[in-house]
Fold:
Amino acid sequence: MFLRNCWYVAAWDYEITEDNLLARTIINEPIVLFRKENGDVAALQDRCCHRAAPLSIGRKEGDAVRCMYHGLKFDSSGTCVDIPGQDSIPPQACVRSFPVVVQSSWVWVWMGDPSKASVDLIPPAVALDNPEWNFRSGSIEYQANYLFVNDNLLDFSHLTFLHPNSFGVGEDWAQIRPKVTRLERGVRIERWLPKQPIPNHIKDVVDAEYLDMYSHYDYLAPGVMVMYSYNFPGGTYEKYNGGHPEVLDCITREVTCQSITPSTDGSSRYFFSWAPFRTKGGTDELAEGMIAIARMAFEEDRVMIEAQYNNTPPGTKHVAIAFDNALAQMRWVLDKLIKEENQPQVESVA
Structure:
């Protein structure tokens, strides 16, 4: 069961051009996205009401899409405005439209009740054109349920074992547990890792034997993460007694924005970006090296998560360990939101 009353990332803003029709599936619903003449993005059910042909293999005509099977034409609200060969258009000739917002370089689509589509529920992220950061971005598909990918991003103890050749982090990721705080629609995760080996992506830009690392991120429904990471000189952890540091003291500074969108019960799409801070050595060379390492690591994740998913038949019971705290709390939050969404509305009677 999926949460419906929330904003899902459907695409990067740059994926939808003036002329293309972009097909995506979100929580088992096929959607076609296209850009209107004023630059806004529209999202329609990708299924013609006549014979269920995909509109995404149709033709864009101004602010409308024409089905290229029998020629029905739908405007950006989903209303059929033309049926070749007949003058009258029945009122039921329409397809569903979805609320869309372009924010932080992502195209967000609301899959639930349109009357509840508040922009205040869009998780905060950092836009690719933010001048302080030097971003690179991309996306990959997983043949696995989205909760398995969520779990992966909520427990970074796997970095030690799964990513020694890509990220190249130390063993403490699997030893030092983070601080986890539950939020209204997610969890917050904070972690200090003192005296760490230099990770692969900054080995060429940091002249030190080891670093003190600090990171924090919010993970918000339905599966959006924005993580800030800081690398400090050794001794910084003691200087701040394990508390929140002054970020100006850092040697390097990074942000990553990631989102998991369930496509079907057994597939999902993973959107990601990663950026160094420009005034902390965030050159194009560093940014390109970082995204290359990220793609390598995310492919390592994909292979493991798909194998895990295919090896988990219905009814499988898992043995919990200490590092499962964040993912267990996030699943609790999602279950709570889904239950609240599906509760029948009871009208008060005077």
In short: The helical segments are 146-154, 159-162, 236-239, 284-310, 325-342. The first strand starts at residue 7 and ends at 12.
